[in-house]
Design goal:
Order of helices and strands of chain B: EEEHEEHEHHHEHEHEEHEHEEHEH
Largest sheet of chain A: none
Strand content of chain B: 25-35%
Number of helices of chain A: 11
Structural class of chain B: alpha/beta
Number of helices of chain B: 11
Strand content of chain A: under 5%
Order of helices and strands of chain A: HHHHHHHHHHH
Structural class of chain A: mainly alpha
Helix content of chain A: over 70%
Strand order of the largest sheet of chain B: 6-7-8-3-9-10
Largest sheet of chain B: 6 strands, mixed
Oligomer: heterodimer
Distance between the termini of chain B: 34 Å
Radius of gyration of chain A: 20 Å
Shape of chain A: globular
């Protein structure tokens, strides 16, 4: 446990001391604050504009942060100084995952704090639905970090690993549309492939309650429970798979 | 019990549509407490062997045991410290933090004081809080040695520890390795520099294209690979030069500035020249090894 904690701590230290981390954080805070000016240019409800943009920014920069920080490659020679120590390789996977999730959590909390502060300043009420939406965004980011780590566990190129993760993120957001296509009978030829992908890839629609949160619509507790279990099980499977592959990878 | 017991290691990689053999039935036994030089030209398979011993890669066939334990076992890993040729450390980490991390990975509890002592021993106490990416190659190598000291590993695996070091760095590294050898650590290091092997090793092995050519102990290695040398001496009298020229396998040439240039072949005893230097109270300027002879070892 001490070894895993140390690896996680080293991962966090590496990013907390990196200018890139603060650049991403500052830019994302700036984008959230931009909703101050956007509200003047839109016809919609002021609170909806601020919260909609705020939640979208938390998700967008969370995905960006997950992709940017997580992806390494098995050809990364810093691994030699870690993996030749008396630790099983899955320690590195788990420690690295924990460290990156912590970075993403900090990013999410800072942006959520800025959004909350902005709402207070503007006198916009803060609804509980927004807390749920932020929680589900964080769960989604946890999956993205796990996907990124999964590709990193066997790919020799960090760029390719990033690209594959991005593809999964995009595909995960359009899975519902794919299901609708299938049920409409379109694309019979690709039906087995699309069906397989539907069950294989993470369905990020399950974590999207932004519309409900912004429009103060009720969010079922059963939906939150399902999303939590789905997210955590998906992460666990990916971590186990990554560990299994990484233990067999030649460095 | 052997420190390292390599049994019929065969390693091949698939490169596009063909299989390339990197190690071909390598058998090698390293005794506890000895310094062993693993020599070979670039691409001979030295790093691959070290990677197999450290568990970073697996052999296609064959087995490796470390102090009687399978190379992948926790017990074996605990006894080993590895220093790669170009040691790269985690991003944005300081020397002190890296040693703390290493201690945790070795599951050892060490105090800040102990870490400071280790850094002092390798000459890095002044840069304890500096980030490792700002370190020179020599400093990184010394930090790598510090982690081995911290772990108190019985076996040190070093991949080309002297390559890319300046003369001072080489001297420091050699002194550190000599100290560790005296402490009874087993040192297994790869190099393509014969001189380093001569200075440190009890035994050496030559590897060529993945095959083990020969294993020498120190005495035989020095004898069979004694290299032609060139000696420069100042202040030898013409009579003394004439006497030296009568010795077998030796050619001494004096010049007007009083400097004498002597070529010794492999069979000549250097001590005969040294005796003359002492007798004549002359000044020994240098002894150099003919570099062509070094290349011939790998030919």
């Amino acid at each position: 446990m001490q070894a895993i904690t140390s690896i996680a701590k080293t991962t966090v230290q590496a990013w907390v001391r990196d200018k890139t981390f603060y650049s991403i954080l500052i830019i994302s805070v700036f984008v959230v604050l931009c909703s101050l000016f956007l509200k003047e240019m839109t016809l919609g409800n002021r609170s909806q504009v601020v919260h909609d943009l705020g939640l979208a920014t938390i998700l967008f920069f969370g995905v960006f942060m997950s992709l940017f920080t997580t992806t390494v490659s098995v050809k990364d020679k810093t691994l030699y100084m870690i993996l030749t120590k008396p630790i099983p390789r899955f320690y590195w996977i788990v420690g690295n995952y924990a460290g990156h999730v912590f970075i993403v959590l900090v990013n999410t909390l800072v942006l959520a704090g800025v959004l909350y502060g902005l709402s207070e300043v503007l006198g916009i009420p803060w609804f509980s639905g927004l807390n749920y939406a932020i929680y589900l965004i964080f769960l989604e980011l946890m999956i993205i970090v796990a996907v990124s780590l999964f590709f990193s566990s066997f790919m020799t190129s960090a760029a390719l690993s990033k690209f594959c993760t991005l593809c999964v993120v995009v595909a995960g957001h359009i899975l519902e549309e794919t299901k609708n296509l299938l049920s409409a009978g379109a694309g019979e030829v690709f039906k087995p492939v699309l069906t397989a992908l539907y069950y294989l890839l993470p369905n990020f629609k399950a974590f999207d309650v932004k519309t409900e949160a912004v429009h103060q619509l009720p969010i079922e507790s059963s939906h939150l429970e399902f999303a939590s279990v789905y997210g955590l099980v998906y992460v666990a499977i990916l971590i186990i798979l990554s560990s299994w592959i990484f233990a067999r990878t030649e460095l | 019990m052997k420190a390292i017991d390599i049994n019929n290691i065969y390693k091949s990689y698939r490169v596009k549509f063909r299989r390339v053999t990197v190690l071909d039935n390598l058998c090698l036994q390293i005794r506890p407490g000895e310094a062993f030089g693993f020599l070979g030209s670039n691409g001979a398979g030295k790093t691959t062997t070290l990677k197999i011993i450290t568990g970073l890669i697996r052999p296609t066939s064959g087995s490796v045991q470390i102090f009687g334990h399978n190379v992948d076992s926790y017990k074996a890993r605990k006894l080993v410290s590895f220093l790669p040729e170009h040691p790269l450390f985690p991003k944005n980490i300081s020397a002190g933090e890296f040693l703390s991390l290493s201690a945790n990975l070795y599951q050892k509890s060490v105090s800040e004081q102990h870490i400071l002592q280790l850094l002092k021993r390798v000459g890095l106490e002044d840069v304890r809080t500096k980030r490792v990416e700002t370190f020179s190659k020599g400093m990184r190598q010394r930090l790598g040695i510090a982690q081995a000291l911290l772990a108190d590993s019985q076996l040190l695996l070093l991949d080309e520890p002297m390559s890319g070091l300046d003369p001072v760095g080489r001297k420091d590294m050699m002194e550190l390795l000599q100290e560790l050898k005296q402490e009874g650590k087993t040192i297994f290091f790869s190099t393509h520099i014969l001189n380093d092997a001569q200075l440190l090793c009890d035994r050496v092995a030559f590897l060529k294209k993945g095959k083990l050519l020969q294993v020498y102990d120190r005495k035989n290695f020095l004898k069979e690979n004694s290299l032609p040398r060139t000696v420069h001496i100042n202040g030898l009298s013409p009579e003394a030069i004439a006497v030296l020229n009568t010795l077998n396998g030796l050619e001494a040439k004096g010049n007007l500035e009083g400097t004498c240039h002597i070529d010794l072949d492999a069979d000549t005893e250097l001590w005969q020249v040294m005796e003359m230097v002492q007798k004549e109270k002359a000044q020994l300027l240098s002894i150099s090894i003919n570099p062509r002879a070094i290349e011939q070892q790998f030919a």
